[in-house]
UniProtKB/TrEMBL annotation:
Domain (Restriction endonuclease type IV Mrr) ranges: 121-242
Residue ranges constituting the Restriction system protein Mrr-like N-terminal domain according to the UniProt record: 2-49
Stretches assigned to coiled coil: none
TM region positions: 16-34
MF-aspect GO terms: DNA binding; restriction endodeoxyribonuclease activity
Protein name per its UniProtKB record: Restriction endonuclease
Organism: Candidatus Marsarchaeota G1 archaeon OSP_C
Biological process per Gene Ontology, one example term: DNA restriction-modification system
Length: 270
């Protein structure tokens, strides 16, 4: 019982809580568990098959047989390398403040990959909810109900939704959102179809969002179109915007960086 209640040095969480949390994370990344809700998990089909041959003790080494876990481990290894000691600080020539910023950037890169992996696995209706929340967080659209109506129905001639750029709804932006696999690409053909849909709807502005990547030809097709302003948001930029606007993201912990108050010492008499 004493071991179960043993706290980490920060005094906030127990050792067993942290270890169980990481064990769950590892199993999810390996594809053996599926997250079904907040603090709720279920064994996946892959996990059910693995139970038949799984050893008595599951180690990170054993989980390396799964490609998804190997990718996750490589990302964590990169983060550890970037969280190097003072010796590496001297090698990079960065100040402590700069190093903190770099570590934060590397952490967000790992977070972004985790969010992107999650997006491609969620249900289409949940993906629509993510897009709605992001668009509203960016200041577009008048309310959730309006956005749910335009995105919560089948696409109309290549358009998934129409959002208001202003509160009165005078200026419209047409939206296309595709939840595709990470290995897939959106090509010039899809962009031309989107441009055609914009033309049909007498629209001038459009946003094309995808969890996949855009080919160079797709980007050039959008940029060269003289009649429309088209913004392309690929998977990497999508999750970056989600992180910046706290959509599907919550604060884990905060650190306060302190510095000497020179004004205080200069104001002392003596």
């Amino acid at each position: 019982k004493e071991q179960r209640n043993l706290l980490m040095p920060n005094g906030k969480r127990t050792y067993i809580y942290v270890r169980v949390s990481w064990a769950i994370t590892y199993l999810v990344q390996a594809g053996l568990l599926i997250r079904t809700g907040r603090s709720k998990y279920m064994i996946s089909d892959k996990g059910k098959e693995e139970v038949k041959i799984i050893p008595e003790k599951i180690t990170p080494k054993y989980l390396e047989k799964f490609e998804s876990f190997v990718r996750f481990k490589k990302l964590r290894h990169k983060e550890k390398e970037n969280n190097a000691s003072g010796k590496k600080l001297k090698e990079t020539g960065l100040t402590p403040d700069e190093e903190i910023e770099r570590i934060l950037e590397d952490h967000n890169e790992l977070l972004a990959q985790e969010v992107l992996n999650t997006l491609v696995k969620i249900q289409p209706s949940d993906f629509e909810r993510v897009i709605i929340d992001l668009v509203l967080a960016l200041g577009y659209g008048r309310n959730f109900e309006e956005m749910a109506k335009v995105l919560g129905k089948p696409g109309d001639q290549g358009i998934d939704g129409v959002i208001s750029q202003d509160k009165l709804g005078f200026d419209k932006i047409y939206l296309q959102a595709k939840r595709w696999g990470l290995e897939q690409t959106v090509g010039a053909r899809e962009i031309r179809e989107f441009i055609g849909a914009l033309t049909t709807n007498h629209a001038k502005k459009g946003i094309f969002i995808t969890t996949a990547r855009f080919t160079r030809e797709a980007v050039e097709t959008a940029q060269r179109d003289p009649d429309h302003i088209i913004i392309l948001i690929d998977g990497n930029n999508l999750v970056k915007m989600m992180i910046e606007n706290n959509v599907g993201i919550r604060e884990s912990r905060q650190y306060t960086l302190k510095e000497i108050d020179k004004n205080y010492f200069e104001s002392l008499n003596g």
